[in-house]
Specification:
186 residues, alpha+beta, 5-stranded antiparallel beta sheet, 5 helices, 9 strands
Length: 186
């Protein structure tokens, strides 16, 4: 089954209902009369719902959308629950710091939670493992060298191509560097 326990969900802010349900549900209040509800955790009937609660009778759901079903989606994971809570929760106060990295093999973006609070996302433009500094790249551009001949930023340690943050000269860390140096989940 999945890697989630009731205790971990309760640590994320989910709570048990004060009345019996067949699914032994846990709920997370996301604001504006909405809840995330997880039922039958760790079984083949596991499901996660987005529920809009009735304005007058707070224990009654007016609308339910299934957003995870074991039959179609497999076991529920911590990563998926965290992502959904983060995306839907209007009540967040101490939101964890995170950074998104491009996974070069797939071209997909992947979110990593940082170990410590940072005022700005990690910047690899001064890393000693960088094959060419930002300053060196800019110097070559000013000399009118064609862009195709200017080397891309690459991490010598992890042998990964690095990219700039959008509209910035700062260089994003590669996926492996994030996992080993900044990721709370590892």
């Amino acid at each position: 089954m999945g890697d989630l326990t009731r205790e971990e969900l309760m640590g994320m802010g989910f709570r048990e209902l004060d009345h019996f349900t067949i699914q032994n549900s846990l709920v997370y209040d996301i604001g504006r009369n909405r809840q995330l509800s997880i039922g039958s955790l760790g079984t083949f009937n596991e499901m996660m719902f987005l529920v809009e609660m009735n304005n007058e009778q707070k224990d009654i759901g007016d609308a339910v959308i299934v957003i995870h079903n074991y039959d179609f989606d497999g076991p529920l994971t911590k990563k998926k629950v965290r992502m959904l809570v983060e995306a839907l929760d209007n009540n967040r106060k101490n939101e964890p710091d995170w950074i998104t990295a491009v996974v070069e093999d797939t071209g997909q973006y992947e979110r990593h939670y940082l170990l410590d609070h940072v005022e700005a996302p990690p910047d690899c433009s001064s890393c000693p493992e960088l094959n060419i500094t930002q300053h060196s790249q800019e110097t070559l551009r000013r000399k009118n060298i064609p862009l195709s001949e200017i080397p891309n930023h690459r991490c010598r340690r992890y042998r990964e191509r690095l990219f700039h943050y959008r509209n910035s000269k700062r260089v994003m860390p590669c996926e492996q560097c994030l996992k080993e140096n900044f990721n709370k989940e590892n």
